[in-house]
Write a structure and sequence with these properties.
By secondary structure, this protein is of the alpha/beta class. Helix content is 48%, strand content 7%. The chain has 20 helices and 9 strands. α1 (14-23) packs across α20 (447-466) and α11 (198-209) packs across α12 (216-232). It is globular. The protein starts with 13 loop residues before the first helix and ends in a 7-residue tail after the last helix.
Length: 473
Amino acid sequence: MKTFLDKDFLLNSATAQKLFDEDATMKKIPVIDYHCHINPREIYEDIQFKNITEVWLGGDHYKWRQMRTFGIEEKYITGDATDYEKFEKWAECMPMLIGNPLYHWSHYELKYYFGYEGTLKPETAKEVWDFVNAKLNTPEFSVRNLIKKSNVKLICTTDDPIDSLEWHQKIKADAGFDVQVLPAWRPDKAVAIEKKDFKDYIAKLSEVSGVEITDYETLKSALIKRLDYFSENGASVSDHGLEYVMYEPATDNDIDVILKKALSNQSLTEKEVLQYATGVLLFLSEEYYKRNWVMQLHYGCTRNNNTYMFELTGPDTGFDAISAGTPSKHLPQFLNAMAKNNAIPKTIVYSLNPVENAAIGTIIGCFQGGNIRSRIQQGSAWWFNDHYEGIKEQLKSLAATSMLGNFVGMLTDSRSFLSYTRHDYFRRILCDLIGDYVEKGEYPNDEDYLKKITRGIAYNNAVEYFGFDLDKV
């Protein structure tokens, strides 16, 4: 029987253990977090968390979902209970989370950052609370030092086109902090014409860009101005959160009419909504191509399913789910529309529905080229899939249908400064899979290429693919 969370956790062969120790552990191989939701202001101000509830439960809807599943009253989740009461309730949940990644992640974080070797349960809640908080309240555990302790070299945050990027600028100007914190363009509000606040958002975009948006041409001009501003501030990555990758073609004149209808408070048909979104995404993809940016497409999620709780707690509080019916036929049509002008930017495709892994792997193979290794990538297993089986199945599918050795690897997609151990978690699963291929005689024990593949997926491929100003390892 193996010991829980020992040094060879998830590494089930000698080959896997050797690969991880030499070519994957984040104590040795740095971390690039090219997509997350961390607040750059908190990095600049180098905030200090008062206690583990602030850093662990303050905005973690992964944990909130499980607390509700355990039957805990909302008061102790998003309500007005004390921080210790909330932590105590989370400790009650923990022993029941067998097989859930939160059990692994939570203990991995306790061990990696704080050196706690026990397990969290109701009987140890006070012990863990005192042990961790004693360390959190020292300068060594400020936000910047947590990032350094995680061996992070570069972070891409998630930023709206109207954002000032002032905190990124201040971080860059601070010679005392050498981790790159770059903005990433997230224009969802400019795409979601069906939303109630769309017209108000366009007014804000007009103000920030200095372009009065009255039609499609002025909208494009405003977006170009903001793209240029983001480029000047180091951005080279975009991200789109979509229900699915749509393709409903329309002329620029059609899109102009649709936009003017929305700005004059006229209702739109579902087809018009899709035509507008398709047109804006294709326009933006051309701009990304011109700038050598990477476009990320995250889709396959149905959001805010519990309207009663959504009205009480707001978005991103744990009421989203995997979409069971994303029309994947649209993805190749959308990529083909970009290909017609030979202007496909580097693109990473993520579906929240793991059933689509093989489809994505085969679709992206139709649009490779441009003298770029895996120009179109399948993104890592994310959100509801970044657990042991989900990560492993995504890696196996990518290996079988595309080229695993070119993969750009893991991201956190997180709001927590303690979530970087997920990179180690991912790398252990990666090394175990590769080690299994070798141990079974399905790949030779070629140390040079095994090192190249493992370090590439952990770090080097992302440096090359995104064009980050970092040395390879």
